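User: Can you recover a sequence for this backbone? Please restate the input before giving your answer.

Assistant: Of course. Working from this structure:
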């Protein structure tokens, strides 16, 4: 009989260290996002991110992961996820998802944001905004969820309810547990599924990361064996936060305010972690 991978549940002290990793990561992403402008290369963005980790005494959990050659993923336009930083210089109107992680004292964080270089296209602004809001709807659902699958149901319900041109939720790439490793059980689906387990309980830490596309859901991996692109060339967006469930509520580990500014309008008040 197939057995589900074991979920790693954290103590209060361990989640506090994960919060430290999340705050370092938040600052590094702040700097990388602020550096996005026309003419900047994706390799330069990687350097900005790495400089913050070095200054904070943290390490990258992306660099060297299964041979990945950089500290962030930079996915531009029709690149969905796992884009490798390099010599590409951002052009006016490019949409780029920056995904990164940090390790502090053996505990991991993972977060992603989408930003637009130069003059944005309205449809790209909409794509990023809806993807980000979908992430927050999933995080808000976690606050009262009985099962991890409730997160994907909330994301799916929100994306399906937005008026205007339909956006697709990628199903091949999902969120995950996080802790002593960057990727661990359970998978966190971004869509409604009959597979709702496991149960949500204190000590559970998840990376919630919807990826939405403007066109079809079919993707392919480029010859670099990493970069995932839409086969129809339509654009994509990714947003991600690491979130902890503790005995008094939830806390967004990779947001300086624990997610309060975005969750309170959704009826959820995050509760600070304690040892």
């Amino acid at each position: 009989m197939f057995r589900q991978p074991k979920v790693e549940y954290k103590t209060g002290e361990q989640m506090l260290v994960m919060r430290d990793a999340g705050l370092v990561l938040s600052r590094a992403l702040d700097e990388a996002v602020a550096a996005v402008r026309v003419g900047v290369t994706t390799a330069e963005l990687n350097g900005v991110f790495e400089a913050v980790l070095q200054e904070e005494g943290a390490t990258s959990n992306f660099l060297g992961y299964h041979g990945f050659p950089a500290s962030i993923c930079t996915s531009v336009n029709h690149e969905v996820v796992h884009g490798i930083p390099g010599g590409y210089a951002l052009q006016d109107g490019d949409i780029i998802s920056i995904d990164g992680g940090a390790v502090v004292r053996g505990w991991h964080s993972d977060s992603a944001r989408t930003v637009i270089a130069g003059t944005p296209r309205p449809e790209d602004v909409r794509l990023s905004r809806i993807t980000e809001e979908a992430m927050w709807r999933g995080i808000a659902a976690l606050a009262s969820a009985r099962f991890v699958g409730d997160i994907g149901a909330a994301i799916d319900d929100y994306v399906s309810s937005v008026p205007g041109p339909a956006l697709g939720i990628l199903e091949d790439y999902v969120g995950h547990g996080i802790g002593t490793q960057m990727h661990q059980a359970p998978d966190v689906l971004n869509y409604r599924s009959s597979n709702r387990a496991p149960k949500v309980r204190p000590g559970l830490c998840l990376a919630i990361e919807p990826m939405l596309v403007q066109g079809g859901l079919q993707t392919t991996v480029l010859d670099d064996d990493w970069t995932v692109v839409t086969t129809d060339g339509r654009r994509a967006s990714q947003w991600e936060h690491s979130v902890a469930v503790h005995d008094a509520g939830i806390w967004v580990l990779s947001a300086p305010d624990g997610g309060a500014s975005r969750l309170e309008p959704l009826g959820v008040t995050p509760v600070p972690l304690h040892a």
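That completes the design. The first strand starts at residue 72 and ends at 76.
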